[in-house]
Specification:
The protein is of the alpha/beta class. Helix content is 39%, strand content 18%. A seven-stranded mixed β-sheet has the order 3-2-1-4-6-5-7, with helices on both faces. Helix 5 packs parallel to helix 8 (215-230) and helix 7 (178-188) packs parallel to helix 8 (215-230).
Length: 233
């Protein structure tokens, strides 16, 4: 039987060589959690810099497989290796390493702790484009109606999961709509959730694949993910 290990930080990454060494060094200074980098087909020096900065484990994809697929692989790794608490965070400096231990601490009270950039207490450090804010609001309302969770940010990837939460999830959505599948599955399986405020930091660099650059096409994609998950029992 695998010996229980307490804490893991999962970093999904695609061409984050600009930030990755700084993020890992800050995490190492702030937390005793082990760090897993999942490199989703980067063509820059992301992996080299992560290893040089002291990352504990690296999983590399030979090509870009998608945000949801990357996190699902991180969840599988965490369960296989017996971690009790798992934080996921972006490594492009939009999620602050100084918040990681707060996420771990708050997980004592909830199965899933999710960051909110739109809580009344969230510090706004940059401005978000109007179309992104509009879509987030619309989808968040839709998710709340389905789940009853009353969350304020359906898309924030800064989260902490208890091991038992990951055991109940079956993430099959490979793309950016993965969090919507997650919320519906969490409600269906009776998981408890809470939010904590995190800073709203938005980089102007485009992060969506080309087919989702159009806001209405992106909204339609999110609605399809929700509709497909609602059909499941």
């Amino acid at each position: 039987m695998t010996e229980k290990r307490k804490k893991l930080i999962v970093l999904p990454a695609l061409n984050e060589g600009r930030f990755i060494d700084s993020i890992i060094k800050r995490l190492k200074a702030l937390s005793d959690a082990e760090i897993l980098l999942i490199d989703d087909g980067s063509t820059d020096d992301t992996v080299y810099k992560a290893e040089k900065a002291g990352v504990d484990e690296v999983i590399s994809h030979s090509y870009n497989r998608g945000y949801g697929k990357t996190l699902a692989e991180g969840f599988k790794y965490a369960l296989d290796e017996g971690y009790e608490k798992i934080v996921t965070m972006d490594c492009d400096e939009q999620h602050e390493p100084e918040m990681v231990e707060k996420f771990f601490k708050e997980s004592a009270n909830s199965d899933i702790v999710s960051g909110s950039r739109y809580s009344q207490s969230s510090p706004r450090k940059t401005f978000v484009p109007a179309e992104r804010y509009r879509i987030n609001r619309e989808i968040t309302r839709k998710i709340n109606k389905i789940t009853g969770y009353n969350i304020t940010d359906a898309f924030c990837g800064f989260k902490c999961y208890r091991e038992k939460a990951l055991e109940k999830l079956n993430i099959t959505e490979d793309g950016y709509g993965m969090p919507l599948q997650l919320w519906i599955q969490a409600a269906r399986t009776g998981l408890t959730v809470c939010e904590i405020p995190v800073a709203l930091i938005y980089h102007t660099r485009e992060s969506f694949p080309e087919e989702l650059n159009n806001p209405e096409e992106r909204l339609n994609y999110y609605m399809r993910v929700i509709g497909n998950e609602k059909k499941k029992k």
